[in-house]
Amino acid sequence: MIGSLGAAPKGGCSRAGCRESATWRIDWRNPKIHGSDRVKTWLACDEHVDFLREFLAARSFPVRVSAFDAAAPDAAAPAPLGDVPAAGGDGA
Ligand SMILES: [Zn+2]
């Protein structure tokens, strides 16, 4: 009996079907169902970080991408996410 493939890898990419190790973390929330202090976190590999970020951005969810350190996954505690600034606004 060699191997222990049953163990779920820690810090894996959140993209369905992807088994790569995550190098990015994507903090996001759905303003319609989450309060400003409720932040969800996905993990992503280099290949899927853009896909996942755009998936959320397309829904106008506040989203923030930052480097993920698998050795210290809790080093960067989620901070409240502000609302996405309205595009085409008056300046700012
Ligand atoms: Zn991936």
TrEMBL record:
Superkingdom of source: Bacteria
Protein name: Acetone carboxylase
Source species of the chain: Agromyces flavus
Lineage start: Bacteria, Bacillati, Actinomycetota, Actinomycetes, Micrococcales
